Amino acid sequence: MNYELEDGIVLPAHARHTGCAKYPWKQMRVDQSFFVSNADAKNIYSNISHANKAYAPRRYKGKTAEKDGIRGVRVWRVE
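Above: the chain's sequence. Below: its structure in token form.
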């Protein structure tokens, strides 16, 4: 099989960095929270763990919650 060599193709930004920015970690003040529905919360606990490392000494916690009859996870900034 022959592969065509191409010049000038820009490498896309690493997808991993965009996942953490999906949530408002940096904008949160202590005791503020946001809600993520179960449909969107597939990796939320992993994202919380990553945010705790990336934005230390800030700390975040998530707990199962319900908002307007929709189950999900509420995430707080605790420090």
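The chain is about 25% helix and 25% strand.
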